[in-house]
Amino acid sequence: MESEQDIVHALAEAVRHRSEGNYSAALEHAVQARLLLTGSGSATEADTAEALAAVLLMEGGLRRHLGDLPQAATTLNEALTLSERAGATIEGARLTLSVLGELAAVHRTDGDYDQAERLLRAAIARARRLPGPEPPELASLLNELAVTFKYSGRFPEAEQLYHQVLELLERALLPHQLDLAAVHHNLGGLAHARGDFAAAEPHARRSLALSERALGADHPVTAADRAALAAILDALGRHEEAEALLIQALKVFTRVYGDDHPEVAVTCNNLAAIAYRRGDLARAEQLYRRSLAVKGHTLGSVHPELAPTLNNLALLKEDQGDRAEAAALYHRALAILEGAVSPDHPVLATCRANYAALQGARRGRDS
């Protein structure tokens, strides 16, 4: 078939660009490969269905990285239909596991933690039923479930799963360095969320070292590790070091994703916090509002990830004496979080405490 070489070339280019962190270019080549495959006239055959599912898996993952969650979900659901059709083989079954894991990541990124958990539990059960040794996809699925638990505030369950993943990776003859980096990144993030910043730093540093060695300094995965370490250092009071790391990360994120992406929003939020502590309230407010605008546009107006920035901006508005806006911001954050995360989630607890303190101060002035 004349187009076979074109398909192979498009896939090779997609893989190359993805490994270099050039997600937009990788997506163009993945879409090209998909169009060539669907135009080959044999997409209904089992082997072609499996190949097309693999291409759609890559395309969906790239769309998720680039922040296009609706199209990522559509693409991955199509991949799931095809991979299920090809699932009579071990390779087809493992492909289905990868598709389910990526689709769960889309739902988790979109704030639908319940659906992410449902997909992951189904995939993990399938992985454990496969004959032979534990498939490598199992570690990835358990890691994604732990991330989902962390975001929803189920910290003990997340920690237990992360350590299971480390055990699985250690049992492998040659664990992938990026898999290890991901788990240490996540363990650092979990310790950071719990407020145990000293325990978080070694995990964050190891993750950064592993990803930098494997991918280079200018890859978006490395930038995400750099930003995570910066947040921990900032919490430890090393604000200048943290700010330098965040500025480096933001340059990579804007180059790869543009200005309108959740990674850009989170980095702006963290830079705002540093400006706030330094007393530069105007700069802090500008960065907080930029973060909120990007999060709202890319994730939606009721996504749980808006709440930390709403809380931070509310504190700033209190300092500026604008208690009415501060109260409105706290109220919005609480409306987003209640029912979406566990009742003891630290961000929810912080928002409640800050809102109660503001209300108490108001009553004290009025009495």
TrEMBL record:
The keyword Repeat applies. InterPro entries: Kinesin_light, TPR-like_helical_dom_sf, TPR_rpt. Its main location: cytoplasm. Gene3D superfamilies: Tetratricopeptide repeat domain. Belongs to the kinesin light chain family. PANTHER family: KINESIN LIGHT CHAIN. This is Tetratricopeptide repeat protein.
